[in-house]
């Protein structure tokens, strides 16, 4: 794919989505970034902001149609919008998990379904779904988030098989800890259970420590741009910790991986 692509990125208000939008624009792409409220969003040089809520099918349809009416095509869709939640699985209300999945999984499904008719008609396109290393690893006290990313991985692989015949490929980007407000200000389950307090506090402290020392979203953004514009690969991890974790998961026995994961999260 060349750099002169029409690129749509969801969730560009901050973090990985915003950094990606900036980088695509610098690469010469025609970039549309979605936000829930345009009036409240900070402008991004070279990026057209589009009001769209990935949790609302009608909003997604309007947003994608508005872009297509201007450009006639969408070459790349990057699903970056996401939310997180801290809490033990027992503490997590079904309604909280449903709200998280509504953005992290069903948001991906809604936007993909909105862009695919035009991509199929042109028999070309690339969809990049931003997953996480917790899409292939467990994440204590982030069960709903980890489950949503596992689901995104399964959905993405399946879609890629279905869409190849139309010249469309689907790719995953799997970052590790990234220094963004999403993780630093992660909400916690609304109904905590006292029995989990001690371990939960250890995990929250470990997450905050890892996020504060993690690289910023620019590294992930570069990986997303490569996944969108470069040769197709199903999975891409940013250099550093994410790539190391991917290799450990693939080549090391389960026992040492489990022990290392617990240590990293502050668990005995």
Describe the protein in words:
With 268 residues, the chain is an alpha/beta fold. It has one domain: 3-Layer(aba) Sandwich (Rossmann fold), CATH 3.40.50. It contains ten helices and seven strands. It has a seven-stranded parallel sheet, sandwiched between helices. It is globular and about 55 Å long. 43% of the residues are buried. The mean pLDDT is 95.
Instruction: Give the low-pLDDT segments.
Output: none
Number of domains: 1
The N- and C-terminal alpha carbons lie at a distance of: 48 Å
| Mean of residue pLDDT values | 95
Q: Order of strands across the widest beta sheet?
A: 3-2-1-4-5-6-7
Shape: globular
The number of helical segments is: 10
**CATH H-tier superfamily:** NAD(P)-binding Rossmann-like Domain
Q: Tally of extended strands?
A: 7
- Helicity range: 40-55%
Topology order in helix (H) and strand (E) letters: EHEEHEHHEHEHHHEHH
Largest sheet composition: 7 strands, parallel
Structural class: alpha/beta
The whole-angstrom Rg is 18 Å
């Amino acid at each position: 794919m060349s750099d002169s692509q029409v690129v749509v990125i969801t969730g560009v208000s901050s973090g990985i989505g915003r950094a990606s939008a900036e980088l695509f624009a610098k690469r010469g792409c025609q970039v549309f970034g979605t936000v829930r409220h345009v009036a409240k969003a900070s402008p991004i040089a070279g990026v057209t902001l589009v009001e769209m809520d990935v949790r609302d099918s009608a909003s997604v349809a309007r947003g994608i149609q508005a872009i297509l009416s201007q450009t006639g095509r969408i070459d790349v869709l990057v699903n970056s919008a996401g939310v997180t939640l801290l809490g033990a699985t027992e503490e997590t209300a079904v309604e909280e998990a449903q709200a998280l999945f509504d953005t992290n999984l069903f948001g991906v499904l809604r936007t993909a379904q909105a862009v695919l008719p035009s991509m199929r008609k042109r028999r070309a396109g690339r969809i990049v779904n931003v997953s996480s290393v917790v899409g292939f690893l467990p994440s204590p006290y982030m069960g709903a988030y980890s489950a949503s990313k596992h689901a995104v991985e399964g959905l993405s692989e399946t879609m890629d098989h279905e869409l190849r015949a139309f010249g469309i490929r689907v790719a995953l980007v799997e970052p590790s800890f990234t220094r963004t407000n999403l993780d630093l200000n992660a909400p916690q389950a609304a109904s905590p259970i006292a029995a989990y307090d001690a371990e939960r506090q250890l995990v929250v402290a470990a997450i905050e420590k890892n996020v504060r020392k993690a690289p910023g979203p620019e590294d992930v953004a570069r990986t997303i741009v490569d996944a969108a514009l470069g040769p197709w690969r199903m999975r891409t991890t940013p250099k550093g910790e994410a790539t190391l974790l991917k290799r450990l998961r693939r080549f090391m026995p389960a026992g040492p991986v489990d022990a290392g994961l617990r240590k990293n999260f502050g668990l005995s």
